[in-house]
Amino acid sequence: MSQLSQLRSPAAVQAAIDEFVQLGRTKFLARYGFGKSRDFLVRDPKTGTDCDSKAIAGVAFGKQFPEQGPLTADSFSGGEATVVPALTNLGFRIIRIGEDWSEVEVEATVRDYFDMLRAEAAGEPYNKSEHNQALRRVLNGRSKSSVELKHQNISAVLDALGLPYINGYKPRGNSQLLLRKSVQAYVLKHPQRLGTIVDALEEVKLPGEKTYLAALVEAPKREALVRGPAPVRQRLPRKFDYAARDEANRKLGRAGEQWVIGYEQQRLTALGHPELFQRLDWVADTQGDGAGFDILSFDDDTRHRFIEVKTTNGGLGSSFLVSHNELMFSQEAEEQFHLYRVFQFRDGPRLFTLSGDLAQHVHLKPTDYRASFRSVVG
Fold this sequence. Notes:
four-stranded mixed sheet, 40% helix, NOV_C, ScoMcrA_N
């Protein structure tokens, strides 16, 4: 039996909440060594104050069992399977962070987000902190971190729709249903504005200063998907499919491939094989698409490196399209296959690489089917 399951005193929980309210959040969490809750808060029935649920549960245990003292943060897990039922069963109201935002607050936050996204797409300077501060003046006492989380939730909704999102607001799921509806409604209500944003992000501007090896960053990790409530199904016009537009934008693709060729020249030189650059073949240019890769390079004088280039003006986590042929070739060529993901191309290219079978690095979702009247069976 876990220690938390022994917490059965509503009075002990209320005593912990009273102390939280008296000390304030920062001092309370520091006193007992807990961090801020990421997903759930417990509401004080007396004052309406929302308190960090795991910290309250841990301290309440010490109130009920003073001889044992409060539970430490690393001695039990918080969340929906543990702390939430423990406090709910004792009659306390649990609030999922972000779920208590009103429609007016959500719509104001969505408008502010798209104002920043428009500025970023247009290359105009803007200050996220100033936007956050100005937005909080019209919200109901929201903290800076809660607004940032809401912006990350909006990024997650846009990413799920295949649309660009603000660099610096990494997509974070578990968003409020009202927020998802509001983002989707905004997208459908303002097609011209969204089209302007996507068009601006697609504009090909060659980077003024060509830097290569310093542009290499670590690839994002594939994250496990947690299925939430059934999404509100929306089918957006194909002209807003950002990943598809990146793929169709041949000018952007060629510019990215040219940049990668420069990157390869420096990489081969750094490896001590500058002569191998003379043997590099820009296959997509000399033979066209269909080989399963764009550039034939080298790891050494006996080993080929097959490079498929995917370029975007979007951020690190922007989705991209992979053809069936590219996927099959990544599995056939194994570790000799390298997908080069060039991102933020317009602002100063950055790069990460994925080696080998792409299915081991990314989540793959079928988007198109070939229709025919004959099929081979058996």
